Amino acid sequence: MVRRIVRPVVQLPNEKEEDPVKAKAKTAAPPVHEEQVYELFERRDEEQIVAPLQGRVTEEFLYEFCRRHKWHNGVRPPECTCKDLVVGISWFGIQEASRVYGGIQVPVEKAKARDTAEEVEFMVEAIDTQTNSSRIGVASQPKMMTTRQGVLRDSFAVQKALSKAQRNAIKQLLPQTMLKEWIQKHRSGGNGKAHAPQAAQPGASGQHPLDAKALELREQIVRFTGSDDAYLNTLGLQGAEELGQLDVKNKAAFVNELIKVVERLKAKAA
Strand pairing of 119-128 and 86-89? Predict the structure, then answer.
């Protein structure tokens, strides 16, 4: 963590105190430091990691940040016509780009954890099965967080640390040229939201029981690992990228494989 040193402003005897309203009007927007942008994107990623665990859905592939105008909930305000935006790929976007690239595996069962009183840390390895190259991703997460109610224990610290470690490992394997093209493709009006429809929730009207079971197992996998990589890898073995691409026979086989995955995760956690 970078510590900022705030130096006191000393007013000279001949200096007159300037009216704060006029000073604000004369002063340009304060410069945005690189670490501030990093912290902003980290907070947004944490929200994405926690969202599915709380039954919410987020669709942002990209984060965009303007140095001059304030965006609310990642949406560009009408007065912002700036082109020099800071763009980052979200955790959701990294997963999607990884699926497009194909062949990247992160065996979370081999993740190494370090647990202290203050934080939890994970180290994982991402493997590119197409090139046989691998990269290590490390991330730590404080166990306490500052909220409006004060400093509270973060019940999702483990999931955040594990997902961030996976994100850091996978991103290193994705070709930079591909990421640049992917970013340009998915930028949509300055908010980076995905256009793909949301998956149907369990119990939705007209939903096949196998779909509901698959989504239920997906939620269990996310609770155990902090991501749905195991679900998506199993889906890929069935030759599909989305659940709706499978017929009933293949869905049944897919659900059986997911049950095995969940049983292995339960056994490991026991």
Answer: unpaired
